[in-house]
Amino acid sequence: MHLGEALVEPYCQGSLLRLPDDRALFANPTSTRRERLTVRLSTDRCRTWPVTRMLHAGPSAYSDLALGADGVVCCLYERGDTHPYEKITLGRFRPDWLT
User: Fold this and answer.
1) Which residues pair with 12 in a beta bridge?
2) Coil, strand, or helix at residue 55?
3) pLDDT classification of 32: cutoffs 50, 70, 90
4) What percent of the chain has pLDDT over 70?
5) Which residue, of 33, 43, 60, 77, is most buried by count of CB atoms within 10 Å of its CB?
6) CB under 8 Å to 42, separation ≥6 — which residues?
7) pLDDT exceeds cutoff 50 at 2
8) Of 35, 52, 39, which is closest to residue 86 (Cα–Cα)?
9) What are the residues whose beta carbons fall under 8 Å from the beta carbon of 38, sequence distance 6 or more?
C-alpha cells in the first residue's frame, strides 16, 4: 500500500510519536479537508496503520503528540465547530484506548 493511501493528509501538520514498546502513533485530520482529527497506531514500524480512533469529528488542524512519564499520551490540537482554529484542546489517553 502506498503511504498516501494509508495516511490521508490535507496538507496540515500531523504528529508522529514512537512509544517505548516500538509501536508508533500518528495524529492528523483524516480527510482531504481539515476535519476528523484521528490518532492511528502502527505495530510494524509505520508500515501499516490498522488501528484508528477519532479525537474530534469536526473541523481540526495542527496536532502534536507527547508521552508523559506516567505513560499517558497527550495530543494538543486545533479544533472547532465551524472552523478548525476556534479552540486548542489537549486530549489525554493511554495507548490501550486505541485498542
Assistant:
1) none
2) strand
3) confident
4) 91
5) 60
6) 23, 24, 25, 26, 48, 49, 50
7) no
8) 35
9) 27, 28, 29, 30, 52, 53, 54, 55
Is the pLDDT score of 83 beyond 80?
Answer: yes
Q: Are 73 and 94 in contact (CB under 8 A)?
A: yes
pLDDT of the residue at 6: 67
pTM over 0.85: yes
Nearest Cα to Cα of residue 7 among 85, 17, 32, 63: 32
The set of cell numbers assigned to 37 is: 482529527
- b/e string for 16-37 if b means 16 or more Cβ within 10 A? ebebeeebbbbbbbbbeebbbb
Q: How far apart are CA 99 and CA 95, in angstroms?
A: 8
* Nearest-angstrom CA–CA distance, 22 and 2: 22
Cell 490535507 belongs to which residue?
10
Strand order in the sheet with 73-79: 15-18, 24-29, 35-42, 51-67, 73-79, 87-93
